[in-house]
Specification:
Helix content is about 70%, strand content about 0%. By secondary structure, it is mainly α. It has one domain. Helix 1 crosses helix 2 and helix 3 crosses helix 4. It is elongated, with a radius of gyration of 16 Å. This is HTH domain-containing protein. It comes from Actinoplanes missouriensis (strain ATCC 14538 / DSM 43046 / CBS 188.64 / JCM 3121 / NBRC 102363 / NCIMB 12654 / NRRL B-3342 / UNCC 431).
Length: about 80
Amino acid sequence: MTEATDLAAAAGSTDPRVGLRAVVALRRLLEGLEHLQVANARAKGWSWQEIADALEVTRQGVHKKHARLMPMQDPREG
């Protein structure tokens, strides 16, 4: 099994301590994956609106969440 499937199984535990810890770990995993894919999309030239549409959120929301984590682009670059 993978980490994600192990965590998903643990999230369904009848032991609240196990389940809640798994939920926290899954949340962190998903946040990391989202950031990775947003960075990937930006590197491929996607606009904030395209990313927002794919994530089913607002452009402002995705920009606020991820723009500060993106490397600064030199304005002299195309």
